Structure formats: C-alpha cells, structure tokens
Amino acid sequence: MSDTWIARHKLTLPQEDWFDTVRTELILRMSYGGAKTFRVRYKTDGKTRTHKLGRWDPDKFNVEAARKAAQKFDPDQHVRPKPGAGATEDQAWWYNATFEDVIKKYIAEVVANFRTKKETERCLNRYVVPALGKKVFIDLKKSDAGQLRRSMRRANGVRQADIVFALIRSVMMWVEDEEILDNYESPLRYRPKRRGKNKRRGGGRERVLDDEELRLVWRAATKLGGQYGGLVRLLLLTAQRRQCLTTAKWSEVVGDTWYIREEPGDAKGTGQVLQLPPLALQILKTLPRIKGNPYVFGVEHKGEHKPFNSFSQRKVELQELFPHPIPRWTLHDLRRTARTRLEDIGVDMQTGEVVLGHALPGVKRTYIRSQFKEKRADALLRLAQHIANVVGLPPDRGTSPKGASNVVALDHARRA
C-alpha cells in the first residue's frame, strides 16, 4: 500500500477494503462516492470491530501517518462513548434514536429530493417501520434486516423483499457516511453480484418482440385502452423507461414536446426534450384525466393523487386479449424492442442512444453538449412510421395528426 497506488487505483466494486501488509490491522476502505478512509481492526468482547482513523490525504494523513496511528490505537480509549459520557446533544439523540426516528430524518433530509419520493416513503413506512421501527437504531444487526427480507419473500415476493432490504441498507450507509457517530459502521455492506449457475449468459435480458408479437401487443393494447393500453403503446413509440412515463406530468407536455424534468444527482433518462410523433400525441389525447391529478398516467387512491402502478393486474387483462399466448415479456422489453427497431430502420447509433436517455461515452459527454432535439424528433417519427406499418395502421396515423398526408412510411417508400 502506497500513496501513489491509492491515488491511481480505480474501484471495480461499490466498496473495497484493502489490508496493509506492513501493519495488518490497518485497512483502507475505498467507497463508490470517492471516500478513502483508514480504519483499524481490533477485538472487543470476542468480536472483531473496526474504528475510523481518518480520511486519506497525501499531505496531511498519508499511509505512513495512518500506520503510526494504527500502532498507537488503544481500544479502551476509542470505544463508543455512552450517551451523556462526553457525547454532544446531537450524538446523544442518535444513541437513543429508534429506527423509526432515523427513517423520519432520512426521509426529510434525503428522500425529499428523490423522483421516487412517495414510493420510497411508502415502502419504508409500510414494511420497515412496523417490523423494525421500535428497535434502537445503533443496535440493529444484519440478521434483523435478513429476517425481514426472508419473511417478505414469502408474503410479498422476492423483488419487493430485495427492494426493501436495499432501502434499509441505504439508510444505514447514509448514517455512516454522515459521520455523526465516530464508530458507527453499517452492518449491511454493498456486495458485488454473485456469480452462479443462475446468472444469465451474456450479462442481461435479450427479449425483443418480433413483428407478429408486436402486432398482438399493439392491437390488444388498443382494444384494452385506458391508461395501461396507452402506456404500452407509448413505451414503444418513445423508447423511454416505465418510470419516466408513469411519473410524467401534464405540465411537462407542451404542444407536441415532452420536457422530461431533470432530477438531482444521476437519475437515469431525465432532463430530455422529446418532440413526440403525431401517433403518440393521438394516444395522449385518448388518456383519461382526473381533475386535479398532475400525472399523465394518474390515479386516485383514498383521495390521494398518485401515478399509475397497477402493472401486473392490467398486464393479465391485456394478455387475455391475445388470440394465442406468446413467450413471457415485460414492459422493459418494449423499450429494448424500440431501440432495436431504431437500429433496424437506419437511425445512427449515437442518436439511438440519446433517444433512450443514455449518457454519451467517454469525452463525448464532456464536449458534445447538444440536446439532439431535431435528431430525436426525426428518430421518433421514423420509429412511429415503422411501427404503424408493422401493426397495420394507415401511414397517416404515424406521420400527421390531420386528415390525409403526402408523407409515406419508410418501408412503403423502399418497396415503391
């Protein structure tokens, strides 16, 4: 371990612990957020624990200084102080706070800025608070969260259980990163994805709808109508994420342009400007609107306006309209299908990626600051023409919202 190596090392995992070969009790913890912190291992009550020594600084606290600090470390002088024994008023609150108290603070200070604020708050209050809310936060163990996840897998499904487990870990990691308590360390750590026999070869899902499946899904969605029927068709026509569409607001659609609001941090696919094709605008006009509800796909539940979220139930209703079953598909497969079709109809690779909201690679992200508004509009228009041709709509439906048009779908033009 050296200062030069620390400065140059690039993480391959969300968090890495590196052990010094000179002083084996010294650990360098490198986190995904850029923090590089020295910790020292020690034993107390038969258990191995770690204590934070300080952040790495090549000038003020380098490797040599950390080794000296680890050598002088005395566990008896650095154990966690008890409330009232030299602790500040703020620290005393944290020592006595229940998990419910910490969750309230986390929601107020962190979750308030999330695009998914309501859903995150709902999951924490519905699943975590009833099960673990009364426990003292600093006494929570890994097994507490693990037990909740196991019980939720049986009652709520694997996906929901994993989401809630990740939320618990996020709260704990937030407290650790805030460095309020000198010796607090989250019992839940980030782990690399396990490699096992169930891992898909190739690294990801590859499902794409062929022409026949695309016709079945489109026609069933048209027949079903309503919000889910509109959502399915707009996912194909815009190639956006389900979350972006379901949380879109009417105020963000101005004329024929959808201004996807920009979210703080690195929220995926936000901040785009999409000129919608006429076929998408026609579908938008057919969507039911609830007075006072700001969401394009809005519902009202117990007097509260919320974005649409009945995906599983409506999908069953949609598939009942199929003349025959097709292999399993998901809403995200529609996004992948749209991206594949963009490639098939000749949209260049870079435009196809920015339509999806993907960041440009490498230095292109630094030097190309265009919003690609015209290119995105042209790509979506060509995609609408292609889909209209595949599903059997008149060419006008994919090009112009007014009566007849002299614009011919691309596939027809090639055959002419």
Descriptive report:
- The chain is α+β, with helices and mostly antiparallel strands.
- The protein contains 18 helices and 9 strands.
- It has helices at 3-8, 63-72, 75-78, 89-96, 99-109, 117-132, 142-156, 158-178, 211-224, 226-238, 242-246, 278-286, 311-319, 331-344, 349-356, 364-367, 373-391, 410-415, and strands spanning 15-19, 26-31, 36-44, 47-55, 253-254, 257-259, 273-275, 298-301, 304-307.
- A 4-stranded antiparallel beta sheet has the order 1-2-3-4, with helices on one face.
- Helix 10 (226-238) runs antiparallel to helix 12 and helix 14 runs antiparallel to helix 15.
- The chain is elongated and about 80 Å long.
- The model is unreliable at 194-200 and 399-416 (pLDDT under 50).
Q: Report strand %.
A: 5-15%
Percentage of residues assigned to helices? 40-55%
What is the gyration radius calculated from CA atoms? 27 Å
Shape: elongated
Number of helices: 18
Poorly predicted parts: 194-200, 399-416
Structural class: alpha+beta
How many angstroms separate the termini?
A: 69 Å
Instruction: Give helix and strand order, one letter per element, not per position.
Output: HEEEEHHHHHHHHHHEEEHEEHHHHHH
Strands, count: 9
Strand order of the biggest β-sheet: 1-2-3-4
Overall mean confidence score, pLDDT? 83
Question: What does the main sheet amount to?
Answer: 4 strands, antiparallel
